[in-house]
Amino acid sequence: MEPAPAFLHALRSTILPNVLRIPLLPPTAPTRHRPRLAPALRRAALGLLLAATALRLPAWDSARLQQSAERLGPRAVASLDLLLPVLREAALADEPTRLNRINEFFNRHLLFREDSAVWGQQDYWASPLETLSKGAGDCEDFAIAKYFSLRAAGVPGERLRLVYVQALQGGPNGVAQAHMVLAYHARPGAEPLILDSLVTEVRPASRRPDLLPVFSFNAEGLWPGTGADAPTDPLARLSRWRELLSKARAEGFL
């Protein structure tokens, strides 16, 4: 089970303040009356307080993820066993490393297959564990799995957007094909980094001239084109997205 928010709250509000109240007698007090461990305890408490303040708790629930994987079958369980160490490592890393580790994991462990071949439907938005249970998915499934895994590893939701694009096959004058990628914005107005199932490495958008944005969305909003306009409500426009958020929460990703 991952650390619970209640534990951090107790650490910050009760345990550490009580440790910090340990009295330090003046240097003139007799040695036998002076609590020799108090300075060390106070220094340790201050270190814990700083660490607890800076710590971003992972957003996943290991127990629920395990139960959800077991319901989906042995392949989901085996894939989750591979994913969880990556999430733990990513949660302790800086955000560029998180992007690379999660992007690499799904690009290496999933095969591209159309929804009709995997699910017998023309358009199905699978949860991350559903995709792992099949070992395959289309571009949407790759992007969705990366989105929820990065959220679980501590990347703020407002920095991530799922982006529908027209992907130009064969160069600038090639045939346009509907495609989905995941974009990461380090800060508002920054050039996004693109996580894609077609290209193995994370690249800035300026190095992906083959992608023409149509619209993007996350849990906070939906944006047309490049996302410069004010967002609209994504849950009202995208019923599949609303259902997917509920599935991801039920599985233990959020």
Structure description:
The chain is of the alpha+beta class and 254 residues long. The protein is 47% helix and 15% strand. Strands 6-5-4-3-7-8 form a six-stranded antiparallel sheet, with helices on one face. Strands 1-2 form a two-stranded parallel ribbon. It starts with a helix and ends with a helix. The relative contact order is 0.11.
Name the descriptors:
alpha+beta, C8orf32 fold, 2 domains, 10 helices, 8 strands
Task: Detail the topology: elements first, then pairings.
Blueprint: H1 5-20, H2 38-54, H3 62-72, H4 74-91, H5 95-109, E1 111-112, H6 115-118, H7 128-134, E2 136-137, H8 139-152, E3 160-169, E4 175-184, E5 193-195, E6 203-204, E7 211-217, E8 222-224, H9 234-237, H10 239-251
Parallel strand pairs: 1-2
Antiparallel strand pairs: 3-4, 3-7, 4-5, 5-6, 7-8
Helix pairs in contact: 1-2, 3-4, 4-5, 4-7, 5-8
